[in-house]
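Q: A reviewer asked whether we had any structural model of the full assembly, not just the individual parts. We don't, so I'm hoping you can provide one. Inputs are below.
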Amino acid sequence: MYSFDDLVRFSSKILQAAGLNEEKASVIARLFVTADAMGHDTHGLKLVAFHMPDIEDGHMLLEGEPDVLQDRGATVVWDGKRLSGVWLAQKALSLAAERAKQYGTCSIAIQRAHHTGCLEAFLPELTEQGLIAMITNSVPASKLMAPFGGLDRALSTNPFAVGIPTGDVPILIDMSCTICAGTKIMRWVDEGKKTPGYWIQDAQGNLSNDPTILFSEPKGTLLPIGGHEYGHKGYNLALMVEALTQGLSGFGGADYSEHITPGSTNGGKADLSVDRLGPVFIQVTDPEAFLGLEAFERQTKHLVDSCKNSRPINENEPVRLPGTKGYLGLKRAKEVGLELYPGIMEDIIPIAERYGVELPDPLPGT
Amino acid sequence: MYSFDDLVRFSSKILQAAGLNEEKASVIARLFVTADAMGHDTHGLKLVAFHMPDIEDGHMLLEGEPDVLQDRGATVVWDGKRLSGVWLAQKALSLAAERAKQYGTCSIAIQRAHHTGCLEAFLPELTEQGLIAMITNSVPASKLMAPFGGLDRALSTNPFAVGIPTGDVPILIDMSCTICAGTKIMRWVDEGKKTPGYWIQDAQGNLSNDPTILFSEPKGTLLPIGGHEYGHKGYNLALMVEALTQGLSGFGGADYSEHITPGSTNGGKADLSVDRLGPVFIQVTDPEAFLGLEAFERQTKHLVDSCKNSRPINENEPVRLPGTKGYLGLKRAKEVGLELYPGIMEDIIPIAERYGVELPDPLPGT
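A: Here is a predicted structure for the entire assembly that you could use as a starting point for your response.
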């Protein structure tokens, strides 16, 4: 078990050694450790190793600020220019929070952001200010889902997250439009496991629980929420996410099919560097601009209580609210430290050694 | 088969005879017939008979305007005062469209709206202006869904609809957070049918396809999207809809449990009239405030084409986009007329006769 702050310092030092400045590195490191603390261990410090090649070969832009392509007050568009998506999203959420307090609501679309990491990790900072926050992204070059009734990949997994203040533990939603997230699939492949349900279809459209068929030819696809029975629901959500992210940022599938990327920082040509790029859409709404935070939380608190008070189907599994586990996990990690998922520290150690960054000491007695 | 305009005139006359003024009646009638033309026959003219008791006994407020409780430009709150939800939503969408053109985005929360009818029917008018529109509502007194893992009703079906311009046929999404809509269940009960899948759980939490158990004691519940396997997804969406509608409008479950309703038009006490009331949340976004409609539609058109070009699982069922059937159905109905779902005209005839409103003539040769 490690101290939360030690892990942030440790990973920040690695990111700095690889070329990010202190401000960017510390924002990114804090969000990675937050993700681990919230239980999103596929999107926490695991990303240090995942992002490192792109940081080292320049596919992630390490320095500078996003270009402001449009700013109308309540709506903003940035070109993220391949900067860290984690850092960009955090910066955009801060701006959107400020603007939401002024206009009541603010939407920001970002084109060409590098990987955004764990979406839920951004939310507690917003809900603690009494704000409703939404963040969603798509990855046009990484399609995993076929349209409902189809065989060919046309959509990415399209995660979206929503944070809702309740006056107590917030409601934190983080879900993909596919039955499960792509990173879960990668973990099951790594661990030689089947998917818990028939959440995949093979290249002929047959249901399967074998995650390896997403990566071997002829490739299968990850099913939308609702699967073969009512997968129009997940398909609908995916279309909505792609329209908001790609349409409003002006960066998406249309650029890939035409083998160009908008903007100019990579010379207008698609290259490997765009493959992990995604457009991001952020929206922050201030209940104070409606009938006030108190009126808002009076309803959301009641909603939470109604759900919690529902008798559970299985006596030993009380009804939960989304985000409670992650939020309390984060609180506990800051107080007493956190364990990392097996293999994560082992992946980072060679990188730390290469850069001469000292490993954090495990907490005494752990 | 009837002419679209004849059906609008006919149903508007009935609504006027029952006490609504010409403006309100014609807006509501046009949206009812639009819903039928788009294939939402549970939310079209069928609602004439469904709304009539509330119109006749005063549970729907027939005259007046909503009270403006808050107006910050890009955010607005109305008290709908039990006025027709169809009329209120249409009016709010018009205002939101105007404001979105000014601010880039506009969100409007409405408390105490009577039934809003078919959400998808509102969308074409917005997408034709090149706007993205979202409309969602909940009905705090009409809970059908238990939280994921629970037995007791805590959430309504929470429909939401999103319209997305593409430069051609728009993407029109209209879905509930339960596996299917509540009105579909009512129709299957009426017709003595089972649900197409195991979309219901009984009072003990067992899966069922018998829709009657939603209405007989001990009552079952309609499952969230994802069912027993991954129903946290539908549960997440439902929480989001209830927070936006009830939280931002300041009218929701908290008012029912405390046996009061906010505002004053019904004396501050809950009564039968509130039972069909719901808060509504509307959001309109103008792509012109981002990188322009052309840049937006370049991406959404590509998205539509990618989906359509996917090989279908079943050769005879090409991949469809949500909204295409409804949009083309509406276009066709305006050109050549429409058939009504069996039983709908039969339900209206006694009402028309009671008010002395002449029935529309079927189109020649039909």
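A: Points you may want to mention in the reply: The domain at 180-222 of chain A is CATH 3.30.60 (Wheat Germ Agglutinin (Isolectin 2); domain 1). Chain A touches chain B through 86 residues (CB under 8 Å).
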